[in-house]
Each structure stands twice: as structure tokens, then as C-alpha cells.
Amino acid sequence: MTSAGEIRSADPIVGQVIDGRFKVEALLGAGSVGSVYRAFDRTQGKPVALKIWNATSYNEQTRGRFLREAKALSTLRHPNIVDVHSYGIIGVLPYVAMEFLDGSSLEGLLSNGQPIAPPLAMTVMTQVLQALAYAHGLGVVHRDLKPDNVVLVTGERGQPLVKLLDYGLAKFLSPDDDPVRGAALTMTGMIMGTPLYMAPEQAAGKAVDARVDVYAAGCLLFEMLSGRPPYTGESNADLFRAHMGAEIPKLAPLLPQSWVAPELQDLIELALAKRPEQRFSHAGQMLEALLALPSPPVRPTTAAPPALRVSLPQNDIAAPAARSGGGNLPLVAALITGLCTAAALAYALLR
Question: Which one of 145, 254, 288, 293 is least enclosed by Cβ atoms within 10 Å?
């Protein structure tokens, strides 16, 4: 839902006014279950992204996705989650009018197969986890966290602002909150999500909870820092097997010119643990661990080590030397200072 790549076509919906409020201006993108348009909200006087389901694909399952997304996004009000203005039915087809985002998806930033700058990666992951932690606190699991569902826009102070999209596969942890209880979308045994970022239990079609979002967040963090997902394969079956049984990859070998904090690798391994009970229990726990990492957790090995200030007790060395008028004490002080500085540098290089 960005302005980039806007498609102007002969789509019959372009030019229409939806529900007497949304003037459809252009097609932004189309998929198997629906299309997204740029529209102008005459009530609020600003552009919106209008998501409309296709008549040919509108069945019980897509109805479930629509109701889940509409309810989830109407419930979730957070700076890092796309805002919903309105939703309704056009004839028999549902639509959702959402905040229009003029930015870039994380998918676009990662499309060249290169890592993004660690400070930006940490900023993005912090905001993604803030959004997920908020949703988890309300009993809503995303279930389809991936780069394409993370959009970066410019915040009020010119800083990157993350917006999390697409709660169409959202799971409501409380059955009473689920708008389509019993629908096929929630049946155990069905595989819903994106294989590159799918937790083992999700790939196996088992019951899921907030820890599948933790796993996907670990995959995103690994990919942002390394330039590649933690697991790849030639088929979905290969990916499922990797998620379920392959060793969790190390970040450091993929960044030979960088120093990687051991605590960062520990965090990734906790997020990507095969068994959900071995992971962070929800995004809030992972966020706490992320914020506790050394800063920066990844830095070039060619960079000078951080300066360590060594203070000597003035009363024992400097002051007596000054009082005595010289002697060998200044030389002793210089020698001790040199030895302490060398030791500090050696410690910093060996960390």
C-alpha cells in the first residue's frame, strides 16, 4: 500500500465512489484474492488505501480473512500498525479502507540480497516488536509476519517509522473474540502463512500462539542483518524440513568483516528455537532482550575499539610527585598509565 509502482489501468472500479465516500483514483496492486486501490476519502479529506476482495475468489475462507483483518485492525490502535478508517460491503464484496502509506516495504529494502545497516535493522526490529507486543497483549497473533508486511515511512521527526500490515491471517487467542469461529481458516492441520518465515509448529499445521510471531521476527532480524533468510530451499517442503530440523545458523560467519555480539546470537537462537516452549513466550520478552543488547550489537572489525578512560588515584601518584618536586614518581605514573591503557585495549580487542 505505497505510492511507489502505482498502476493506472482500465480497472472498472477506478473512478467509482465507494459507499458515497471513497473516490477510487488508481490501482496499486492486485492479487489472487483482491486488489488494493488508492482512493480519496471525501469525509476526512485525505488519501486512503482501499482493499477490495475479488468476486471470483470470495468464498468462506476469504470471508474469514476479511472479517479477521477488519476486526483485528479496528481493534489494534498503535503507531506501528496501519490504521483502519472504515470497512463495509459493496454489493456482496467486502472492503477495508486503511491509512495510505507512502513509503517502502522491507521486502524492497532486502530485494538485492544485501544486509541493511545494523542501526536501521535494530530500529525496524524494535518497532516491529513493539507492534507485536501490543497485539499479543490484546490476544491477537499476526501469523504472517514477513518483509512484505512491514512498511517504512517517514515519521514526524524525519525518522523511519514502521507500519505493520495485513492481519488477514490473524488468530484471536480467545475463541469468543474470533469473528469467524469454526471457519476452515482456523482448523488444526491447515498450513497458513509464508514458508520462509514459518515456525515449525505452524509448518506442521499444529495449534499456534504468539510464539509463531516471535519465530518470524527472529527470521526477519537474521535476514536484515545478514541479507538472507535463516533457511532457504528449492521447495516449500525443503523449507518446512529446514525450519523443523536444520541447525539454527550463526550470524557471524555471514559477516566476516564485522564483530557480532554473542548476546545477539543468543537472542536469535532463542527466537528461532524449534520447540515453542524454548522461545520467548511473546514479543514483549523478545523486545526486552533486544533493548538490552550491547550497542551497537554489530560493528565493523576494522573500527577502532571504544576508548576506555583509565583514572589513577591522584592522591597516591600525581599529588605526591607534585609535592616532591619530581624524582622518579612521574616516570612511574607514566609507566603505570601506559600499562593500564595497553591492558584496556587488549581487553577491548578480545571481547
Answer: 288
Asked if 53 contacts 47 with a C-beta cutoff of 8 angstroms, the reply is: no
Q: Is 97 helix (H, G, I), strand (E, B) or coil?
A: strand
Which helix H or strand E contains 39, and what residues bound it?
A: strand 34-41
Kindly report the CATH number assigned to the domain that includes residue 198: 1.10.510.10
Q: pLDDT by residue (tens digit) across 98-121?
A: 999 999 999 999 999 999 999 999
Residue 50 in domain: yes
Asked, for residue 4, whether it belongs to a domain, the answer is no
Please name the amino acid found at residue 168: G
134 lies in the same domain as 239: yes
Residue finishing a domain among 67, 99, 131 = 99
User: Do 242 and 319 fall within a single domain?
Assistant: no
The answer to whether 334 and 326 are in contact (CB under 8 A) is: no
The residues near 154 (Cβ < 8 Å, ≥ 6 apart) are 103, 160, 161
- Domains held by the chain: number: 3
Q: Where are the alpha helices (DSSP H) in the chain?
A: 60-75, 106-110, 118-137, 200-203, 211-226, 236-245, 262-271, 283-291, 318-324, 329-350
Is 106 domain-assigned?
Answer: no
- In contact, 64 and 71? CB cutoff 8 Å: no
Q: What pLDDT, in 10s, does the model give residues 20-45?
A: 999 999 999 887 677 899 999 999 99
Active-site residue among 83, 102, 144, 166? 144
Do both 115 and 264 map to the same domain?
yes
Question: Contact, 124 vs 162, CB < 8 A?
Answer: yes
**Is 175 inside a domain boundary?**
yes
Closest CA to 278 of 206, 195, 218, 196: 218
Q: How far apart are CA 39 and CA 97, in angstroms?
A: 9
pLDDT of residue 298: 96
Same domain, 184 and 315: no
Active site residue 316: no
Domain that holds residue 229: 111-300
Q: Which of 99, 119, 144 is the last residue of a domain?
A: 99
CB 40 within 8 A of CB 160: no
Task: Tell me 305's DSSP state.
Answer: P
